[in-house]
Give the backbone structure.
Amino acid sequence: MIVPRLTLSNGVTIPAMGLGTYPMHDEATAAVASGLELGYRLIDTAEAYGNEEQVGRGIAASRVPRDQIFITTKFNRAWHSVDGVRQAAQASMRRLGVDYLDMLLIHWPNPGLGRYVEAFEGLLRLLDEGIIKAAGTSNFKPAHLARLHTATGMLPQVNQINLNPWAQRADTVAYHRRHQILTESWSPIRPAALLSDPVILAVAKDHDATPAQVVLRWHTQHGYLPIPKSASPARQAENLASWDLELSEADMAVIDDLDRGEDQVTDSDVYGH
């Protein structure tokens, strides 16, 4: 299957669904290789996952050319400076076995540290130099994004956030839409109990689909980019097959009504690494 692509604010295109790799370790090599063979073209990892080397081996083991794979990774708070971001990028590229990154993200804003603007300035330099194709953030709230804009006049192409039907992040998504930031969803089909929600089960039954497929299609029909994690080739294929679904306006509305608010997600003003 060929995953559709979305166009970022800087004109770069990105696959509209990716393969997440947390918390994989040694199994990440086989999982990434099988995912690429099945049709995934976006692979998401991070320094904090401790699996960049394994992910890189999976990419190398696949028959998919590097220029067809959109590789994204993230760096920790220790690198929140202009020069630190460059060092983080170089270290990630070494571990992944590649000479450029499609997208590099600030993993958490860590506002208590007070240096995420410097980190973003470092990303912008790498973007200008062609070392990355897109500059991203992860777990940033609208206030964090607004500070980046005030300080640099720029915003990330992507903000990756914990988003699912129980935690729809309305304020953050609205900010993204106003400023042409793509919403990327991590853990899009979790918590596990989400897939047993009676509404999700009913919609899945109506479409002869799995609950995970329904939730993933809800994401993509909203224009979000989900990155579901699976090490199982069968489950990877099942997730990709969500593109065969078409949820009705009524389906989307009843799923939209499941939102339980911001209490469902980790507060990035408090947590970060």
Remarks:
- Residues 5-190+219-232 form a domain with the TIM Barrel fold (CATH 3.20.20.100).
- The chain has a mean pLDDT of 97.
- The radius of gyration is 18 Å.
